[in-house]
């Protein structure tokens, strides 16, 4: 995976050893996931953000050739990772939101390429979901068209624009939804009373629907305390749900 100035150099002889190691440590206690980065992320990294976005408009055909080249390589990676002893694969697609590209450009330059990766993983019998931060309220149905099993982060206002109840009404019948606790304004800055109220409101919305996974909307802010994170599981335990067999 890439993202600007955050390259991870992969050892081709030991691409998937980490899954064997972690599985040996945790057994079946935890769900184990792999990760692949969207071809669009590689495209932006190759050309630089400004040049890449301009290229979508000025030379869409060449842009698509580059995107397909990256997709071909990522499909090979997807085939290998989905054969490992894991439960799901995340497609990290952080630049596919409204802050970077329109819904029309998403449909043209992101959807068909991520769709190819999704198809390979699903054909191996594994679940696959997309991670996109920020504002995606205008493209939830488009993201579903990739064939994914689920979607995260569904950032709420003000860090995103997704209302959880609206998301369930639009895509909750076909996708699992993971999110959408504001890790900054709820977990970091709110007092305990407000944080508890915010989280309970999300739980109450999620429990009315199927396929909901409670989590932070995106990465946990570095200064969020351990106690605040522990609150999530404590509030779930208080609901006394019947475990899924």
Describe this structure in words.
This protein is of the alpha/beta class and 245 residues long. It is 46% helix and 13% strand. It has 10 helices and 6 strands. Strands 1-2-3-4-5-6 form a 6-stranded parallel beta sheet. Strand 5, helix 9 (192-206) and strand 6 (212-216) form a beta-alpha-beta unit. The protein is globular and about 55 Å long. The model has no long low-confidence stretch (mean pLDDT 93).
Looking at this protein, list some descriptive labels.
single chain; alpha/beta; six-stranded parallel beta sheet; 10 helices; 6 strands; globular
What layout of secondary structure does this protein have?
Elements lengths: L16 H10 L6 E5 L1 H9 L1 H10 L1 H22 L6 E5 L10 H7 L1 H13 L3 E6 L7 H5 L5 E4 L10 H8 L4 E6 L10 H15 L5 E5 L9 H14 L6
Parallel strand pairs: 1-2, 2-3, 3-4, 4-5, 5-6
Helix pairs in contact: 2-3, 2-4, 3-4, 4-6, 9-10
The general outline is globular
- Treating each run of at least 4 consecutive H or I residues as one helix, how many helices? 10
Order of helices and strands: HEHHHEHHEHEHEHEH
Largest sheet: 6 strands, parallel
Distance N terminus to C terminus? Answer: 34 Å
Low-confidence stretches: none
Percentage of residues in helical conformation: 40-55%
The chain-level mean pLDDT equals: 93
Secondary structural class: alpha/beta
């Amino acid at each position: 995976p890439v993202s600007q100035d955050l390259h991870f150099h992969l050892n081709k002889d030991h691409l998937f050893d980490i899954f064997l190691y972690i599985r040996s440590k945790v057994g079946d206690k935890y769900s184990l996931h792999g990760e692949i980065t969207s071809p669009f992320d590689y495209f932006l990294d190759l050309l630089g953000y400004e040049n890449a976005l301009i290229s979508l408009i000025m030379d869409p055909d060449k842009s698509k050739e580059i995107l397909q080249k990256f997709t071909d390589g990522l499909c090979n990676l997807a085939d290998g990772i989905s054969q490992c002893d894991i439960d799901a694969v995340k497609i990290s697609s952080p630049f596919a939101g409204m802050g970077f590209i329109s819904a029309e450009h998403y449909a043209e330059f992101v959807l068909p390429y991520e769709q190819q990766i999704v198809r390979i993983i699903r054909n191996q019998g594994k679940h696959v979901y997309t991670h996109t931060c920020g504002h995606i309220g205008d493209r939830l149905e488009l993201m579903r068209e990739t064939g994914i099993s689920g979607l995260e982060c569904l950032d709420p206002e003000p860090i995103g624009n997704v209302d959880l109840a609206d998301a369930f009404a639009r895509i909750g019948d076909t996708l699992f939804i993971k999110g959408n606790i504001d890790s900054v304004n709820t977990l970091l800055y709110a007092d305990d009373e407000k944080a508890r109220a915010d989280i309970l409101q999300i739980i109450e919305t999620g429990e009315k629907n199927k396929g909901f996974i409670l989590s932070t909307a995106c990465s946990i802010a570095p200064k969020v305390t351990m106690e605040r994170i522990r609150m999530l599981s404590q509030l779930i335990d208080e609901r006394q749900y019947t475990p899924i067999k």
